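Q: What would this chain look like folded?
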Amino acid sequence: MKRIGWFGATKVAFGLKRAIHRLARDMIAGFVDLLRPLGMPINVSEGLNVLGAAHLALGNEAAAAEALAAAKAEAESISNPWLGAQAIYLLGELARRRGGLDEAEGLHHDALAMRASRGLRPGVAESLEALAALAVQHDSYAEAARLFGAASTLRDQMGLARWPVQMASYDSDVNDTRKALGEDAFAAAWAEGAALTVDAAVAYAGRAHGERRRRE
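A: My prediction, written as structure tokens:
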């Protein structure tokens, strides 16, 4: 089976039952162990990212942290921004899970900057949504709606769907934002974000974060 087949199939499995998460974890852990001695850092880094995501889905935070730190190190050893940014993004999700919102925002802004600078548009959409979710947790709902709108436009342009495992939290955050703002204000803020170019959306994410930090 081709490399993309292994990892792509495993990522799809994340949207299924917890037993499948465990199967994905065990399968990828064995695969990574086989690859390590072969001097294949790109494959090892990709596998460790998937392994870290599986641990995160299962609530194994320490194991997720270990796998993702190793994935980041492997990516940095070969200067691979795609895999490095994915590890940083997942570390941001881990920090959010642990309640470290400031750390999570820093990591997600780092991942967004890396992805945007290299034209990694699927990752840009993912990072914008992660920052929108953090804005919800800070009760910055207009900011969240704009970021969600920008990410939605980008996904529509690429025909890029979310992973099933992401849908429940995404829907919850969007619904919370809509309820907090009211339908008209929500629609207006969403439309403002949806009209932004990729570069403008990235710039807005940084500017909105800075303005919110100054208010706090």
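The mean pLDDT is 89.
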